[in-house]
Each structure stands twice: as structure tokens, then as C-alpha cells.
Amino acid sequence: MNMSAVLLAGGESRRMGKDKATLQFRGRPLWQIQFELLRKLQPSEIFISARTDPTWRPEDVRFVADFLPSRGPLTGLAASLAQMHTTHLLALAIDMPFMTEDFLLSLCDHIEPGCGVVPKIDNRAEPLAAIYPHEAEIEVREALVDDDFSLQRLVRRLLAAGKLRETSVTEQEKKLFLNLNEVSDLALL
After folding, report:
1. What is the DSSP string of 108-158?
2. Is residue 7 helix, strand or coil?
3. Which of 67, 82, 134, 151 has its CA 20 to 30 A from that of 189?
């Protein structure tokens, strides 16, 4: 696979109250669940994007520091696009433990040179489990200097530029995008 992958782990986890990456889910920390998933895809390179180099980072994974000042996942996406050596970047949030190898591989079927893919649930893009072409770096860097750091806005710009295409998420696939933001989320799952 001529693709890079990045695990986006730069959030402050304010609502969770502790680092999501080390949060135990079904007996394992979230970072380990997500890295195992990314490794199954056999990308050319894997990055961890965070504010600081995490102590749990595996040796074979490159740390990519979020650009400062932090603008949420947008900063990690920008930093990773700038460091990658492939044509596409698969971005995955650390707090989506239900994501599957099959779904991410299905996203790969929708990419083309210069064009990535973003899943869409109803009218909302899911940019934290998406594939971006290297050419998206321009729009991502421009988004960092705007006043609106919304990934939804960035996705609209990339769609308009022909650098992303949407793929609809089925009713069954919606559960893959459940994320853990608060301690109460764990109790519900």
C-alpha cells in the first residue's frame, strides 16, 4: 500500500478527564487498539500526531509534533501531510475503537491520484477516519490560518477542489464511528 497512516492523538481529553490514549477499553489501551488496526493495513509509514511525544509510542512509529498553536486535529493533519512520503494519508482518531480493517480497506477502493475519500453520515463528514491526498496539504495549511478551524469546513473546501470525494456510511457502519469522549460513554458501551 503506497499510503501513510496517522493516529491523531493530540487532543486534551478535557471531557474525559484523562488521556484517552491510555484509556482502557476491553482490557487494552486505546492507542494499542488503534495501532494494531493501522498495522493490519500495512501502510508504508505510520505516524503518531500529538502535542508531545507520548511515552507509549512504539519504536517503529514516527512522532509528528502538532503544529503550534494547536488547532485541534487540523494541526495534526497538517503536520502529517507535511512529513509523509506517499501519495495518500489515512487519518484515524484515537477514540474510535470500533473502526474496522474492512471499513478502512473499503475506503482505499475510492481513492485516486490526487483525490482522497471521506465517509459521510447523513449530512456530516467523518474527517477523523478518512484518506487525504498529499495535494490536500495546501488547503489544510490555509485552514490553519483562518479563524474557523472546523474540519467540516475543510472537507467542503477539499470536495469543491476535487481533492476529496464522499462515500456514504451504511446504517450498520455508523457504529464504527462511535467515539469515546466522556467517562459516561464507556458505561454506555
Report:
1. HTT-BTTBEEEEEETTEE-TTEEEEEGGGHHHHHHHHHSS---HHHHHHHH
2. strand
3. 151
Helices 101-108 and 30-40 pack at an angle, to 10 degrees, of 40
Q: Which domains does the chain have, with CATH numbers?
A: 3-188 (3.90.550.10)
- Give the end-to-end CA distance of the chain in Å, rounded to a whole number: 33
Q: What is the pLDDT of residues 119-134, one digit of tens each?
A: 999 999 999 999 999 9
How confident is the model over 20-50, as pLDDT tens digits? 788 888 889 999 999 999 999 999 999 999 8
Q: Are 18 and 60 in contact, with CB atoms under 8 Å apart? A: no
The span from the CA of 181 to the CA of 165, in Å, is: 27
User: What pTM was estimated for this model as a whole?
Assistant: 0.90
Which has the higher per-residue pLDDT, 4 or 58? 4
